Amino acid sequence: MKRVYASIDLGSDSIKVAICELYLGHLNLLAAINTPSAGIKRGLITDPEAVSKSISKALKDASDMLGVPITKVLATVPGHHAEYKIIKGEVKPTGDLITIKDMMETYKLGMKSQLLPNEEFVTVVPIDFKINDKTIMEDPKGFPGEKLQGRAMMVTTPKKNVYSVASVLEGLGIEIVDISTEAVADINCFRNEELEKSVGALINIGYETTTVNLYSKCIPVKTKIIGCGGKDIDQDLAQNYNISLDVARKLKETFALAHTTNAGNLDVYETLELNGKKIVISQLEASKIVQMRLNEIFELVKNEINSLTNKPIQYIILTGGVSNMMDIKYSLRDNFGSIANKGSVKLIGARNNKYSTVIGNIIYFLNTLKLKGINYTMIDDDEMDLVSSPETDSLSSLNGTMLGKVFGYFFGEEEDNE
Q1: Across all residues in the chain, what is the average pLDDT?
Q2: Residue in 156, 123, 162, 154 with CA at minimum distance from that of residue 44
Q3: How far does CA 145 lie from the centroid of its chain?
Q4: Residue 395, Cβ density class (10 Å: 0-12 exposed, 13-18 middle, ≥19 buried)
């Protein structure tokens, strides 16, 4: 049976939507949408009405590609002031064998004393379980045991981070099935066996902000958001050449390189200044401007990493739209050495790092379902017939808190959609 999942990420510059199907154990992309956004400043919603219009456009485009309306999504919420707390709980299994209910109960017990009044629960990232004080494993269901201890990382944010996103989607009649943060989603897009044994950082350069996330064995432990991003590069180019921001952005994305190593002085870009005068820009000079700003951003990143941990960092992964620039690897090498690499979204049809968060959020959700041992799809069988035919063209209420809604999905207290 095919199962379909939709994920949305609200950025300051654009709304990203990804729709994937899981079939025979393989994740396939059905649609990837990137549309301009409005009403979001530095990752936070400032104008709900403008954001609603942007989301409506993105979801309509995605629905048109899919062939059926999108009414349920996985969503990321702003990671500003996110907190990461290790929770621990201990239970006595109710039967001879450990069940999913026993596993989830350890998390519930661990959460009770950790959630503060001004915080909203976002998600729980499992770490491990211990059976009878000795056997440690990631998934103990089906094993015998008289005592079960569970450890996980609970992720919380200020309430406004969650409810600003929830209220906008609710107003559009869209149900949020699960939420996470960029830190949780991005690492799931790139994780592998090597990263699961290491301490490292993931850098996501967005339009107005750069997010630095620290991980231990792919478990997020700290987040820091820096107030600069790709827009600063555009502004540097615009000011230097007296051109509009739109022209500067096109110059950055289609002509300039992230490093001067391979930039040609004879390669030129012709455009018009703001006064209408023709200007010829060399690739070497434009690349110098880009490289200088990237060096400043990466210097801030290094300072933040040093403030977040005193442990040796074993890897640094770069993602976000700016990471798609040609020769970004040379800037990473200059600033961080051999431990830093550009991330690579491997899903065919979405091999662009601007989709790392929406794709990673789907992968994280699938891992959560696997741990709980349940199946779920956002599109029913009748709608699936439409999805399979290319020629065929709510959130219920905030009275029940977002904590209760998402808590129910994570801990299996909502009815499973088989």
Answers
A1: 90
A2: 162
A3: 36
A4: buried
Of the listed ranges 153-167, 294-308, 393-407, the one predicted with least confidence: 393-407
* Tally of CB atoms within 10 A around 183: 28
Residues in the chain: 418
pLDDT (tens digit per residue) in 192-231: 999 999 999 999 999 999 999 999 999 999 999 999 999 9
Please answer whether residues 43 and 51 qualify as being in contact, where contact means their C-beta atoms are separated by less than 8 angstroms.
Answer: no
Residues 363-369 have a mean pLDDT of 93
Q: Name residues whose C-beta falls within 8 Å of residue 76's C-beta, 6 or more positions apart in sequence.
A: 7, 8, 9, 10, 179, 180, 181, 182, 185, 357, 358, 361
Query: Strand order of the sheet with strand 199-205?
Result: 219-226, 210-216, 199-205, 315-319, 340-342
Res. 37: pLDDT tops 70 = yes
**Helical H runs in 338-417?**
356-372, 381-387, 402-410
Q: How confident is the model at residue 404, as a pLDDT?
A: 43
Distance CA 331, CA 11 (A): 25
**pLDDT-above-70 percentage for the chain:** 90
Question: pTM here?
Answer: 0.89
* Single-letter amino acid code for the residue at 223: T
What are 156's two structure tokens? 């919380």
The dihedral built from the CA positions of residue 167, 168, 174 and 179, taken in this order, carries a sign that is: negative
| Token duo for residue 361 | 């959020």
Cβ distance 132 to 145 under 8 Å?
A: yes
